[in-house]
Amino acid sequence: MSDRIPVTVLTGFLGSGKTTLLNRILSEQHGKRIAVIENEFGEVGVDHELVIGAQEEIFETANGCICCTVRGDLIRVLGQLRKRRERFDYILIETTGLADPGPVAQSFFVDEDLKEDFELDAVVTLVDAAHVLRQLADSPTAADQIAFADVLVLNKTDLVDATTLAGVEQALRGINGTARLVRTERASLPLDQVLDVGAFDLDRALSVNAAFLEAPRPFEWAGLYTLPAGHAKLHTGAHEASHEHGHDHAHEHEHEHEHEHEDAHGHAALAAVSLLVLPVAGSDAEALEATLEAATSAFGDTARPAASGTHLVPGTLYQLQLEHSAHFELVLPKAGVWAVFTEHHPGEFGFHVRGEAAHLERAFGSHHHDAEIGSIGIADPRALEPNKVNDWLSYLLQSRGADILRMKGVLNFRGEARRYVFHGVHMIFEGKLERPWGEQARMNRLVFIGRKLDRHELEAGFESCIA
């Protein structure tokens, strides 16, 4: 165990519930002695038995956010706390609702004294389920706070219905596909979900959240169908689908799409959606898993426009031009199991295969429809050349560091028995060799979260590092 002091950064947009959660952390019987650094006291009722020496260890930074104009205050305060190390076990930093948490996280990478004595445990972002969609539309800061998160606490879930909540979660996943998502009301949740998370300790993070390094996908849904050779009829249209299947697929995505028409009920509808069909060697989850990399690569190609009535062939990425009840003919050369991948969830555009039901379905996190902030993942087992990796990441950080909010991963170096683990925040990078691979299958897993990331550029850079 590290003897460095763990630090949690608590952030979230105005009104998300940070004060409520902070008050819960400070008043519950969790046995931790917590020092708090905050730059707005609000009406927090601090239990001074828990926050020992409150006059010394609760700090308000001067006239601004600790993440920007007064970041020097943060480093100064942490230096004072270091001198009182024996008096507390944990540090909690609360930012203002309009703060970018990135520079706070960066402080623990760039300052040598901080790196020696403090350990960034996680960035925890609170999200207001009732208002986050509007906040995302109006403020880039809200998206930044979500993008930097290791844990997303989706608060006030009691104020929205199930359909809206599903849309909110999809939007969050589009911005940050690897953060652990926790639903809550009134910031009431087990504190071990936000403290001692170990998000910057890869083994601990994976033990808590197996998807911590799961590669985000450019599609939101996949389904397996067993189909005969010949023509299979594909239909779209929320009106038709709801009558055939008895489902209500209404979703609220007003902030994510620019719609060109409305459906029969006056609801906004998608104008186009990408679709891909691939053969599958089996009908179980493992067979679907085996096709994901091929599908991800295919979705990087330019989609071929397809008007209603077009004949579609497997292996080609199409952009279906949607109408109220658009239909397509899927031409299959042989009978077998086929995987259908769709850019958006079928419920958003009433997609179904006429007369057939998918016998296995899998939903993926949203790929973020507005493409401003999103996440891109790479998974590849081939060994890498360390010097090439260093050159690539150095170039990437210099040329795109301002756009890359977070990156993290584990790498398989040629001739090295240990895994190389790295984290990055903007242009700050930290990596080290950790435990041996042992009998575990070697696999490079990289995740990039940022603005207007180019999948082809990142994949080409990775390819340049193959040993």
Q: How would you summarize what this structure contains?
A:
The protein is of the alpha/beta class. The chain is built from 14 helices and 24 strands.
Helix coverage percent: 25-40%
Largest sheet: 7 strands, parallel
Structural class: alpha/beta
Shape field: globular
- Walk across the major sheet and give the strand order: 3-2-4-1-5-6-7
Overall number of strands: 24
Low-pLDDT runs of 5+ residues are: 40-71, 238-268, 367-371
Taking the alpha carbons of the first and last residues, their distance comes to 34 Å
Radius of gyration: 24 Å
Average pLDDT taken over every residue: 77
Fraction of residues in β-strands: 25-35%
Put simply, the count of helices is 14
How does this structure look, described?
With 467 residues, this protein is of the alpha/beta class. The protein has 14 helices and 24 strands. The radius of gyration is 24 Å and the shape is globular. The strands form five sheets. Strands 3-2-4-1-5-6-7 form a seven-stranded parallel beta sheet, sandwiched between helices. The chain has a six-stranded mixed beta sheet with strand order 13-15-12-17-8-19, with helices on one face. The protein starts with a strand and ends with a helix.
